[in-house]
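Cross-check.
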Amino acid sequence: MIDRISANTSSVIFMTPFPVAASIAMESWDVLVLGDGPAALRAAISSADAGATPLLVTGSSVGAASGRSPLSGFAASLNETTPSSHIQDTISEGGETTDEEAATRICSSAVGSLAELERWGLVLRRSSDGSPHLSQLPGHSVPRVAGCGDSTVREVTRILEEQTMKRNINRRSDILPVTLVMDNNQVRGIIALDIESGDLVSIQAKSVIVASQGYQGIWSTPSHGPGNGLAISSAAGIRLGGMDIVPMHALTISGTGTVLPLDVLGSGGRIRKDSGEDVGPTQVAAGEPCILDMRSMDKSSEGWFEGTISKILDRTGLDVRTEVIPLAPMTVATIGGIPVDGHGRAVFESGKMWYTGLYAAGRSAYTGMHGNSPLPGNLMLEDIVTGATAGKNAAEWAANSHFGGSTRMEEELTAAQSRIESLFSSEGSPVGHVAKALSSAMRIIDGNNDQSSLAVVQASINELSNSGIRVTDPSRRMNTELVSALHLEGLMALAGVISSEEEEE
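Predicted model, tokenized:
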């Protein structure tokens, strides 16, 4: 083995022989951040500010996160003397399963976190007095949700991406993690697929932060939420939590899957039954026939929701100024993931033990603050707060740690190569068939956890897993079908975790 320090002190490169190639370059970084959304970006920033040299790795292209569905703004008790009411609303919305300590910790960080985003350049919607405009959304006892209309996700992502550039944070796009390498409950790095070249790469790290998308793609298509970080974590033996808690988003247009931001309800939009009675998101989630009425939306608000108004017209032909929109609930965000403590560390044995060097944030972390249902605006809040926490603590851990587990990395690289090769065999079902069958099976247990339904779902998952997935495109470079197949493998494994959790209850 030949070890050398590269001219760029951010990485150490090891040249190691493998059966699959004459030599394999293995990079080594202080902190490896998996993901490209607000939680991942904030984690990388925090890690860099704490003195580490992080690497952002994502299977998507640069900027992909900014185009994700707008769910809601950012909840923060800006006009309140204390965050106590925000904390209580969070607990009330989540129910008895809410982790009150996590809710208190994260809600108490909301004002400072939002102020920081503003200092970095986030332009919030403002009231006539110049203060941030706050909407009172369902579940909130007072107006508390700030944002940028229907572009909050896009604008927050853009601001955070600018901050990563200012810090010269290294970033690798179109690099899909396929294996989280663990060695005796200690993280060692990842094996990833370079989508552009089709090669597998080894990336060693002192600490890893899993901060990728949720797993909502189980109920639709992998592109809507592949849950990649959680899939490779589960495969590595990490026990996940809260996977069976699947909140439904009320403002999705029936028959199209188009997601609308809850913020329209704080600007004159109303959910109604066919009878005209005003109701809330709970009734939509329960399956009652409901419509969204935006005809009385404040004129001053229309400019902040131009994207929403245009999207509705393009996809349905409906003009929100004169017509109403039929609604049907969908799973568009998830809250289960890797159980974490207040430092963002991945824990097990009820928090008594730590998977050394492993952290999680955002949609990959299970803090428990949402209980059975997230309060509007708390998902974005949790992304930012947990990202900052995980990044800081991962950097501090890396400062006093050493690289290791090169032998384990070699073993996992060989195993990943075999796994990729198996997808190109002549056996197995096409990607599209598997995706459709999986989503159909999982919809059986939407709000239904009786044993007969769970047995049917588990049998369907087992059948899909046993039959396997077949990639028909033989090329290795930019093979998007292969990427979808890898995502589907992970989603099937997560579906098994979900049905198991449901059965245990």
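The CA atoms of residues 54 and 169 lie 7 Å apart. Confidence is low (pLDDT under 50) at residues 1-23. Passed to J.P. for a second look.
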